[in-house]
Amino acid sequence: DTGDEIVDISGPEDIKAAAQSVEDRIVDIEAARRVSVVSLVASIVVAVLGLGIGISENVLSLIGFGLECLLDGISSALVLWRFKVPKKRQHADVSAAERHCMERDARRERNSSVGIGVSFLCSAGLLILFAVIKLIVFNPNTAEHLEEERSGAYYSGWLSWPSCIIFGGLAIAKFRLSRSLQSQVLLKDALCSLLGAILAFICAVASIIEQVGSNWDQPANMEMVDIGASVLIALILAVEGARTLRHNLPKTGAWATDHQPMA
Predict the structure, then answer these.
(1) Distance CA 166, CA 35 (A)
(2) What are the CA-CA distances from residue 219 to residues 53, 96, 147, 157, 216 (Å)?
(3) With contact defined as beta carbons under 8 Å apart, do 160 and 166 qualify?
(4) What is the pLDDT of residues 179-191, one digit of tens each?
(5) Whole-angstrom Cα distance, residue 71 to residue 74?
(6) Of 185, 61, 47, which Cα lies nearest the Cα of 114?
(7) Is the pTM here over 0.90, yes or no?
(8) CA geometry: angle at 227 spanning 221 and 231, to 5°?
(9) What Å distances lie between residue 146 and 71, 158, 183, 211, 241, CA to CA?
(10) Angle at 44 between CA 170 and CA 158, to 5 degrees
(11) Is 124 exposed, middle or buried (0-12, 13-18, 19+ CB in 10 A)?
């Protein structure tokens, strides 16, 4: 007569696989931090150059691109905050510790996403306003403004093509890490970098068209290309901002009770 036996199915292979999974996650988190640091530095440098050149040369498309890069830098900073080393806290048990971690991560993700969405909408509104002002008061036929359009087109191409490659590469790396870590915050950051690459491509194409218009001595066409590119960038920012808010703002009145200070 044999009694029931309790069989331990977790053998050495299972323990080894679990340890390898934890080690892989640690490696991916470190990689996400490094990528975010590179993205933060690149975004700040390109944002300063884009805004500086755009404002000095009256190139609205570069101003819009610079604003998006600034938001991309903020998004990368939020990823660094998301994956920072947590503070040591005392919890009743392992279950309570995991629950606290999940609630903290959810708050951070929601708050950062709402902030990015609002920033996108504000940037889009400012860009549309600048486009309207330039359309009404800007005279492209003066020698000064014609020179600004020409130099702006040159600097725009010089900045946009490398930015398109850099942010495209960062987006690919972030997408891979977001799938590996199952991180929505990192996924949103990857989308920001992808959007930056798309906007850089728009600016680069606009600069080519403007340089062609400059060679044909058509300053009015150069102005309309810049305004058209800036409006397109503004629409992309507005759509992405509205989509982000729609997915993160609550559909009920629970925001006041759910929106607690971040841990």
Answers:
(1) 12
(2) 19, 66, 10, 18, 9
(3) no
(4) 998 887 788 889 8
(5) 5
(6) 185
(7) no
(8) 140
(9) 31, 19, 47, 11, 34
(10) 75
(11) buried
